[in-house]
């Protein structure tokens, strides 16, 4: 008959059970990471192989091998693309880079003015508005009226 060893949960035949149990308690130890019984002499290796802590290269924190992939995907220092040019880099670099990158100037395709890249989206909106306002068909009455929100376009009856 086999008996279950309480230390290692293995079925051990009863004729060596006591021997085993003594051996088990003496030479095995529970791995605190995975709760397996590991020979004490192997524990270090076991931990190194199965529970080795790896350093996240982004934040320098340590994680188990099986966790590091998940962590790296959500690490707050993980590389992200620059808002302006799309270059991917780690956060600490990116902060500096975006500052410089956003302050580069580029020529507005619509008006030809040089505008900083970070202001370009805003500029383009204004620029297109201005171009529309300048369009000859809507030009006449605008001069004195300034910018009112035009709910309805009033037409004066003439003649
Ligand atoms: Zn055992
Ligand atoms: Zn373990
Ligand atoms: Zn990290
Ligand atoms: Zn950039
Ligand atoms: Zn422009």
From TrEMBL:
Coiled coil where? none
Q: What is this protein called?
A: TRAFD1/XAF1 zinc finger domain-containing protein
In terms of InterPro entries, this protein maps to:
Innate_Immune_Apopt_Reg (IPR051986), TRAFD1-XIAF1_Znf (IPR049439), Znf_RING/FYVE/PHD (IPR013083)
UniProt keywords (A-Z) are: Metal-binding, Zinc, Zinc-finger
Pfam families recorded:
TRAFD1-XIAF1_ZnF
* One GO location term (cellular component): mitochondrion
Where is the stretch described as Disordered?
A: 137-159
TRAFD1/XAF1 zinc finger domain spans which residues?
91-127
């Amino acid at each position: 008959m086999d008996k279950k060893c309480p230390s290692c949960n293995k079925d051990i035949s009863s004729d060596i059970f006591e021997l085993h149990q003594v051996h088990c308690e003496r030479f095995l130890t529970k791995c605190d990471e995975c709760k397996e019984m590991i020979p004490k002499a192997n524990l270090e290796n076991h931990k190194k192989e199965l529970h080795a802590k790896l350093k996240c290269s982004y934040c320098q924190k340590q994680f188990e091998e099986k966790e590091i992939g998940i962590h790296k995907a959500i690490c707050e220092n993980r590389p992200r693309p620059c808002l302006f040019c799309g270059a991917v880099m780690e956060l600490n670099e990116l902060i500096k880079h975006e500052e410089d990158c956003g302050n580069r100037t580029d020529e507005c395709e619509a008006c030809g003015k040089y505008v900083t890249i970070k202001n370009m989206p805003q500029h383009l909106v204004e620029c297109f508005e201005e171009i529309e306002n300048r369009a000859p068909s809507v030009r006449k009455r605008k001069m004195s009226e300034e910018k009112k929100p035009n709910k309805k376009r009033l037409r004066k009856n003439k003649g």
